[in-house]
Design a protein that fits this description.
heterodimer, A: 16 helices, globular, binds iron/sulfur cluster
Chain lengths: ~475, ~200
């Protein structure tokens, strides 16, 4: 019998164009997503060398990082942002690459629209000049972020030169109780393995708690694989995956769909497949999570207190924590639930999908019934991940609940996840955020970010402080 | 890309772990459509904090003005895929970064821009950080062919490097050009895949 293989190994083997003696591989890339920030220099490279895009039909571009989330009818005010978005349009026209324009109803964050359009499918290799390409691994696709030189390489050749990654398996046991979400799972995982824990690995998430997640939840988990150092995350495709894909515009059409499902069913890791590292976690150990520092691994249960650097033995770690706390403006020993916030950001490719907005609206609806609104002095924004997410939310009336509760309802894009557009924190401002990175300056220079789930961010909006979402559940 | 063979230069110490790409180059500098000029944004947010002892940031100290080597801690370059981080280092004259570990995407980006990354165990990094803190006297010689670093006191450290990366760096290779020569192999891969998974085409 053939040697048992992991999901990763099967996808890898299926895409090998050539393997050199030193182990370097030429890997075929099935789909390439492109956005305005990391692509201009790649297209410029093609122009300078007179090269073409090998498979425009396997490429899809969308502007997301720079787009305004306010009224777009007047275009983009910021000149540099506008030039970048216009450059993407011009490059796509010149090289024949399909583009979803800023004012298209389907526009949105690149990692939201790929799955939404059915572009993302099990067993594929998918790349994008963006580290959160790991999101697409939720479908059992090998998806990873690449730099601009690699973007150019894929545009020109539809391949990449790579070495196989190591296999890591993270299994989560148990059932998620109310108030606990995919975001809490992945934050707890990063807290456990550290931000470099997955370096050199592809992480396959497994176990009953992962299997029970919706596609939205699976995307949230795989999205943050990169925060654990792994270039890609994977979840084996199953009926949940197949049902999600059925009927989407770019998914296989009737006839081909059945054939594709039969193939997708062969992908999950074989019994006895070997992993280089295995980690297990139980849902029972997890509470709603919130970060206190400037690295996603700086995470604690919401019942916790700000940690004390003087308790650390290693001098380097002590200095690191002291620096983080100073940046975050936090005093050791403070209860996390006593930390007041100025802003709340709900959105990003981690938590900007319909399920996330429903979770926020459910908290808001409960709060409204108790006569509560977004706390005074707190500005809370909701940025749908795509135009279609926005439409869906509006058709369900979520926007009305949110607006009534005091949230600002915006246009789709990356927004304050990385503050390249006009949405930014001011120096010293503190934000409860559903995004993925709490790095210094990530949401605006001097801004302070606490990462958490959408429900937790909504709870913080109503309390004006970091809060336990479970207090808001009926 | 420019070849990397040997490099003799001042090494600047940056003894921090988890230096993420937002620290190397904040997002507001990513609005350019060019590869050049990014040195102006290199470390800009942490630069203003100086050296933590009231002095200027290491790369702003006269002794390190001409530094071409950076000695860093663990997990350097984590975070985003922005190649701007590599471009910014290169624009500021940095050709080699020596650290305990590097993120995967940053490693690949550095290699494509002729920047050599050298991974060493913590004890050796501690020693090199100590050497580097001696200012302009902290000249290191990195020899990629021999895979050695020669310190200011004559001591030599050996390092490992991926053979393919070494080959590309030593020869300044354009790997797109190389891959385009494999057109036949890519064509036949596509034909095979199309036969088995027609829905992909
Ligand atoms: S939402 Fe944030 S993490 Fe996601 S692609 Fe946009 S900037 Fe990157």
């Amino acid at each position: 019998m053939a040697q048992p293989r992991t999901l990763f190994e099967k996808i890898w083997d299926n895409h090998l164009v050539e393997r050199q003696d030193d182990g370097t591989c030429l890997l075929y890339i099935d789909r390439h997503l492109v956005h305005e920030v990391t692509s201009p220099q790649a297209f410029e490279g093609l122009r300078l060398t007179g090269r073409k895009v090998r498979r425009p039909d396997a490429t899809l571009a969308v502007p997301d990082h720079n787009v305004p989330t306010s009224d777009r009818s007047k275009g983009i005010e910021d000149e540099e942002s506008r030039i970048q978005v216009e450059t993407l349009s011009a490059n796509c026209a010149e090289f024949g690459v399909p583009l979803i324009e800023m004012n298209d109803a389907r526009q949105g964050i690149v990692h939201i629209i790929g799955p939404e359009q059915g572009l993302t499918q099990p067993g594929m290799t998918i790349v994008c000049g963006d580290s959160h390409t790991s999101t697409h691994g939720a479908f059992g696709a090998l998806a990873f972020g690449i730099g601009t030189s690699e973007v150019e390489h894929v545009l020109a050749t539809q391949t990449l030169i790579q070495r196989p990654a190591k296999n890591m398996r993270i299994a989560v046991d148990g059932d998620l109780p109310p108030g606990l979400t995919a975001k809490d799972l992945v934050l707890a995982i990063i807290g456990k393995i550290g931000t470099a824990g997955g370096t050199g690995h592809v992480i396959e998430y497994a176990g009953p708690a992962v299997r029970a997640l919706s596609m939205e939840g699976r995307m949230t988990v795989c999205n943050m694989s990169i925060e654990g150092g792994a270039r890609a995350g994977l979840i084996a495709p199953d009926q949940t995956t197949f049902d999600y894909l059925k009927g989407r515009p770019m998914a296989p059409k009737a006839g081909a769909y059945e054939q594709a499902v039969a193939f997708w069913q062969t992908l999950p890791s074989d019994e006895g497949a070997r992993y280089d590292r295995e980690v297990t976690l139980s849902v029972g150990e997890i509470e709603p999570q919130v970060t206190w520092g400037t690295s996603p691994e700086d995470v604690l249960p919401i019942s916790g207190v700000v940690p004390d650097p003087s308790a650390l033995e290693d001098e380097g770690e002590r200095q690191g924590m002291t620096r983080s706390l100073k940046y975050m403006g936090l005093t050791p020993g403070t209860r996390l639930q006593d930390v007041a916030v100025d802003k709340v950001f709900i959105g990003s490719c981690t938590n900007g999908r319909i399920e996330d907005l429903r979770a926020v609206a459910a908290i808001a609806e409960g709060a409204l019934k108790q006569g509560r609104k977004v706390a005074e002095g707190v500005y809370a924004m909701v940025v749908p991940g795509s135009g279609l997410v926005k439409e869906q939310a509006e058709s369900e009336g979520l926007d009305r609940i949110l607006v009534e509760a005091g949230f600002d309802w915006r246009e789709p894009g990356c927004s304050m996840c990385l503050a390249m557009n006009a949405d930014k924190l001011k120096p010293g401002e503190r934000c409860a955020s559903t995004s993925n990175r709490n790095f210094e300056g990530r949401q605006g220079p001097g801004g302070r970010t606490h990462l958490m789930s959408p429900g937790m961010a909504a709870a913080a909006a109503f309390k004006g402080k970091l809060a336990d979402v479970r207090e808001f559940l009926g | 890309m420019e070849k990397f063979t040997t490099l003799t230069a001042v090494a600047a110490p940056l003894p921090m772990d988890n230096v993420d790409t937002d620290k190397i180059i904040p997002a507001r500098y990513l609005k350019t459509i060019k590869r050049t000029g990014l040195g102006a944004g290199l470390f800009s947010d942490i630069r203003k904090d100086g050296d933590g002892k009231g002095g200027p940031f290491v790369l702003d100290q006269p002794a390190y003005e001409n530094a071409k080597i950076l000695v860093v801690g663990d997990n350097f370059g984590c975070g985003s895929s922005r190649e701007h981080a590599a471009w910014a280092l290169l624009d500021a004259g940095i050709r080699c970064v020596i650290g305990e570990s590097f993120s995967d995407i940053f490693s690949s980006n550095a290699g494509k821009n002729g920047i050599l990354l050298i991974q060493l165990p913590p004890e050796q990094i501690a020693k090199l950080l100590d050497d580097a803190s001696r200012g302009a006297n902290a000249t290191l010689t990195v020899d990629l062919e021999a895979q050695t670093i020669q310190g200011p006191d004559g001591g030599t450290i050996s390092f490992e490097v991926d053979p393919w990366k070494k080959h590309c760096l030593l020869n300044g290779l354009d790997d797109i050009g190389l891959t385009l020569q494999k057109k036949g192999e890519i064509d036949s891969f596509e034909a095979g895949q199309k036969a088995q998974q027609p829905w992909l085409y």
